[in-house]
Amino acid sequence: MSRVPQSALETRIRCKPLRDRIATPEDAAALIKDGMTIGMSGFTKAGDAKAVPLAMAERAAREKFRITLMTGASLGHDIDKTLTEAGVLARRLPFQSDPVLRAAINRGEVMFIDQHLSETVEQLRTGQISPIDYAVVEAVAITEDGGIVPSTSVGNSASFAILAKKVIVELNLSHSPELEGLHDIYIPAKRPSRTPIPVVACDSRAGSPYIPVDPEKIVAIVVTEKEDSAARISPPDVETTAIAGHLIGFLQEEVRKGRLDMTLNPLQAGIGVIANSVLSGLVDSPFHDLRMYSEVLQDSTIELFEAGKLSFASASSMTLSSAWADRVFRNIRAYKDKLVLRPQEVSNHPEIIRRLGVIGINTALEFDIYGNVNSTHVGGPT
Predict the structure, then answer these.
(1) Cα–Cα distance between 50 and 53 in angstroms, integer?
(2) Scanning 74, 178, 306, 380, which has its CA 20 to 30 A from the CA of 331?
């Protein structure tokens, strides 16, 4: 990394005492010991910790240690692959998509829990799974009070940072500081006195624009400039265009029968080529003033904004191709009044999804006539 001007760091680290805690990735990785439980930011390759996990893998070549790793979802930059090959991972949850790690899980070398993405931090909050020793969270800034401003995802980062004993911040200067204000960090209270999550529409804001953390818990700040891994998005083809046509026809029939209107209910689309292509098909549909309540925003979301079809989108991360990422994040101010990023236990909360009447567009391996869906398991193994 090139030498960063002091003025840039002062703008990004507004809590003055924390400026003395800038560390190298190697020094931060050295804090993580054998047997610890680590919570890392990252959701579908967006907003993931980058420098510290790679330094952990390098350290493992000299000093063997193993950890339990929790994230929001999949990580970019082959982090899961690198940590697996270095022998660092003893346990992994709640989601991963790396073929090297998958093979290690199926061989029994790494224990894995495939959880509903709204459940992990709930179990942490109630002490049902081991507490987090260190949270490693990517940020674009730290506020005057020590609040952590996430980057391109929230995922489980907020609860990881709040519940962890100590926090390591990866301050990523490749992200625009204009991302500040995009996030809505709402953390449900502990049971049994919890009140309903006050998200009643896609554009509801129920929390704060940063993760509230005691600055004394932040033990190291690693300055990075590595960009998110770009999504690999293929253009629509004959098959996905046909699927989009069938979906549009189905939705038009629902409107004709009076169950929907031309603005539809909030849309959710899964990650991947098929879902992205199908959602892109709505650009040429008769529907208008659409809204999204999803977990990941892909290129198709921006295409719908650009076409004037989409009015607002709520999610937990933004995973874009290189072309769209450059266009959007360099001009994020133009989109900020149309976007919000939330913790995944809110974006994926079944009660909110049911209450909003979300229309889900996802791919699956198999499903039955009762609506039970298998999207992750082939013949039993993950």
Answers:
(1) 6
(2) 74
What does the alpha-carbon distance between residue 233 and residue 171 come to, in Å, rounded to a whole number?
27
1 pLDDT above the threshold of 50: no
At residue 60, does pLDDT exceed 60? yes
45, 149, 206, 119: CA torsion to nearest 10: 40
Question: Cβ(147)–Cβ(212) under 8 Å?
Answer: yes
Residue at 217: amino acid letter: K
Phi and psi based region of residue 341 (left: phi greater than 0; alpha: psi -120 to 50; beta: remaining): beta
Residue 382 has pLDDT above 60, yes or no: no
Q: Which of 122, 138, 180, 295 is the catalytic position?
A: 295
- Here the tokens at position 151 are 């980057």
Lowest mean pLDDT among 2-11, 135-144, 190-199: 2-11
Tell me the C-alpha distance between 130 and 93, whole Å.
12
* DSSP classification of residue 128: S
- Residues paired with residue 149 on neighbouring β-strands, in sequence order: 141
Report pTM.
Answer: 0.93
pLDDT in tens, 84-129: 999 999 999 999 999 999 999 999 999 999 998 889 999 999 999 9
Distances 333 to 143, 152, 262 between C-alpha atoms, Å:
19, 14, 29
**Rounded Cα gap, residues 362 and 270, in angstroms:** 5
Q: Assign 298 a pLDDT band (cuts: 50, 70, 90).
A: very high
Residues 6+ apart with CB under 8 A from 284: none
Spatial CB neighbours of 337, under 8 Å, sequence gap ≥ 6:
none
Q: E strands within 127-172?
A: 134-142, 148-150, 166-172
Residue 317 CA to residue 152 CA, distance in Å, equals 6
275 within 8 A of 363, measured Cβ to Cβ: yes
CA–CA distance, 80 with 97 (Å, rounded to integer): 9
Alpha-carbon torsion (320, 326, 327, 331), positive or negative = positive
Concerning whether 170 is annotated as a catalytic residue, the answer is: no
